[in-house]
Amino acid sequence: xxxxxxxxxxxxxxxxxxxxxxxxxxxxxxxxxxxxxxxxxxxxxxxxxxxxxxxxxxxxxxxxxxxxxxxxxxxxxxxxxxxxxxxxxxxxxxxxxxxxxxxxxxxxxxxxxxxxxxxxxxxxxxxxxxxxxxxxxxxxxxxxxxxxxxxxxxxxxxxxxxxxxxxxxxxxxxxxxxxxxxxxxxxxxxxxxxxxxxxxxxxxxxxxxxxxxxxxxxxxxxxxxxxxxxxxxxxxxxxxxxxxxxxxxxxxxxxxxxxxxxxxxxxxxxxxxxxxxxxxxxxxxxxxxxxxxxxxxxxxxxxxxxxxxxxxxxxxxxxxxxxxxxxxxxxxxxxxxxxxxxxxxxxxxxxxxxxxxxxxxxxxxxxxxxxxxx
Amino acid sequence: xxxxxxxxxxxxxxxxxxxxxxxxxxxxxxxxxxxxxxxxxxxxxxxxxxxxxxxxxxxxxxxxxxxxxxxxxxxxxxxxxxxxxxxxxxxxxxxxxxxxxxxxxxxxxxxxxxxxxxxxxxxxxxxxxxxxxxxxxxxxxxxxxxxxxxxxxxxxxxxxxxxxxxxxxxxxxxxxxxxxxxxxxxxxxxxxxxxxxxxxxxxxxxxxxxxxxxxxxxxxxxxxxxxxxxxxxxxxxxxxxxxxxxxxxxxxxxxxxxxxxxxxxxxxxxxxxxxxxxxxxxxxxxxxxxxxxxxxxxxxxxxxxxxxxxxxxxxxxxxxxxxxxxxxxxxxxxxxxxxxxxxxxxxxxxxxxxxxxxxxxxxxxxxxxxxxxx
Lengths: 374, 374
Prior knowledge:
The structure is a homodimer of 374-residue chains.
Chain A: H1 12-25, E1 31-32, H2 44-54, H3 70-80, E2 87-90, H4 92-106, E3 112-117, H5 122-129, E4 133-138, H6 147-153, E5 158-164, H7 176-188, E6 192-196, E7 219-224, E8 237-240, H8 243-257, H9 262-274, H10 277-300, E9 304-305, E10 313-317, H11 325-335, E11 337-338, E12 340-341, E13 353-356, H12 362-373
Parallel strand pairs in A: 1-11, 3-4, 3-5, 5-6, 6-7
Antiparallel strand pairs in A: 2-8, 7-8, 9-10, 10-13, 12-13
Helix pairs in contact in A: 2-9, 4-5, 4-8, 10-12
């Protein structure tokens, strides 16, 4: 049974909580740059949707369809240009990725999941839970994924290639040619490309390309409203499955969760229907400005870093200051800035620290880092 | 991989939906007695909690702790008299049972789940998903479970004994002596008793005994607020684990779902804190009255039935009218009453029909049945 073999591994949340707790107990003011929780307002219509739901008939408080509220699925299908039957509304991207990985492993066409290094730590955790094996493809220094490196490691053992674009933690955004190549590699190896696109609204490069743009039965796209609507706690996500895999995924979803939570789904539906594109645009601009502010200060601090093309995070390396938990704690105590150790994301970034820019105090944090390291 | 082996089995919801759809398309008025969705008001404080949450700071819309809102877990732990560290808030009883069954199978002490016949159809489905095997213990004619029959079938292969009290579909409530015996059988076979107690607020016999009343490291209790607060769509449940299994269960919960949905958890917390016991009492009395009304009419219809000691359902058998889907459809068309086929719940009740009493039209339905069969 897979879970018995799970090591006492530090997945992101426990480590994340340890760092947050350490920061909260610090004897000084600390700018938190640990979590990926948006710090801005959700869409006004989301609050309206919740308020209206609070007054709904008791019937509206009962089970939604297992695969999600019908209107919500229809909205998602229309926006993404896919057949509604292929859409399952999930308990956030977390469940969407779990279902996608289970689908890939259950096909019986390989038991290996190709992951990138650096990696989002839930992916290896889910792979182990599902009894799959892991193989890593190193990302380039700037976080880009070279399809040739993926092709080289893909084989008949490959069940899935799992990517995250825009990427956590590197900030890389994979362009259309890369996505096409990745799907082709999946097809050539009778595998699936799994593309987690939860940061898709935060592309600063204009080069983001969803895997949905590549027509193929060999890809699953996962996403959520967690980041785009600033509601990581609502747990409303979705996955778009190939036709021949969607029924098995619906069955697993039903057997694990029965259905997702209806108040959250209803609020997201209202927000989807009534929110002006300017809402998303403004938050993307806010984040793009924070990237500029923060990286400029990193220059002043003499740090090495990758300017993110998308997402919430900046990876930075300071001389003689590897990205260990001990150094993260030192930075909390002595600089008043809390980040995440780079070694939480695989071996490739052990020397680095990850800073989440979802705080209004980005400039202050940058100044503190410049002063500490300057 | 387990899910590839899942047959195209009819779990309750798809069949349930088929029957509901058939009823909705019928050319006549139909009293729906298919679903287990409460038809009464949720606690007023639940609506208040949702309204207040709709106005909360953006921070309150972000990830709750993976194992559930701290105050909600504390409320649950206090009410159930258990250590809060053993409580995981889940996406309804559905996820709670999934985690409990995975825990039992992951211990490496057997791969067989003992189930009752009749059985709630999600249980065999989850067993298959998790790669376990099933063995059935027949319930008595009145739905009671004879511990001797369980003891006879338990062995070193037994990973878990899974019971549901008050029971769906039989309406049986297991008394304290039975629960004590079941835990002892689990202990004697190095197995776990898994007790799904989601209908615990609907005990009409006064004999309900939670497995939490038996002190043992060999039992897991699952529950939810779905029925007691009339919110099956909110997906807020919980499981109480033995100390040595709770960490692995938290890891699985985190890897599958990250966390449950926060608006629903917050609303349930408010309702727990502010709802007078009279709310639960009134709904139990309402259901007890419906049981009386319905069974009296079944007498008039010449049906055989078991008077439920708890829960939402009555199993009834009409002469020469087996509980097939075809007969369920006939009853919809010709009597205007929609029930569930007994054969959805295993082999023991193939001749029976299950009627859910969560409709204000119980008396009307009973009259229609009396007229049709009388």
